Amino acid sequence: MPTDALEGRLTLCADDHSAESLAEATAELLIDSDTAFRVAELFKALSDPTRVRIIGLLAHAELCVGDLARILGMTQPAISHQLRVLRNLRIVRYRKQGRHVYYTLMDEHIHDLFDQGLAHVRFG
């Protein structure tokens, strides 16, 4: 199979376009349905501008709900709702200290994904 020199990707074309030959050529490349669903949910979470702004802040600092609300000019319940979505998708994590709950990004994967998306938009 030929390889795209610039991208390192395969160039595939089933000459006879039969379902069997195409299935054989792509069998190892196809993402399973459960994984595809979870990735789609991740990107759906990133499709909301408020959540993107929250992620942008949490990429640089650990912040509590009150601080996020103040910075973003939103109510604490609205911020809590967005954080719940991000928590359920394992994009952010939290720690409790007294009566405060502090949020940060879950891991470097999320930070890298955010940085790459930002760079793509800013620098094309």
Model description:
The protein has 124 residues and is of the alpha+beta class. It folds into 2 domains: 1-30, no CATH class; 32-123, Arc Repressor Mutant, subunit A. It has 6 helices and 5 strands, in the order E-E-H-H-H-E-H-H-E-E-H. It has helices at 19-26, 33-45, 49-58, 65-72, 76-88, 108-123; strands at 3-4, 9-10, 63-64, 92-97, 100-105. The strands form 2 sheets. The protein has a 3-stranded antiparallel β-sheet with strand order 3-5-4. The chain has a two-stranded antiparallel sheet with strand order 1-2. A hairpin with a 2-residue loop joins strand 4 (92-97) and strand 5. The model has no long low-confidence stretch (mean pLDDT 88).
Assembly of the depicted chains: single chain
Rg over CA atoms, rounded to whole Å, is 20 Å
Straight-line distance between termini? 30 Å
Helical segment count: 6
User: What spatial order of strands do you see in the largest sheet?
Assistant: 3-5-4
CATH homologous superfamily descriptor of the largest domain: Winged helix-like DNA-binding domain superfamily/Winged helix DNA-binding domain
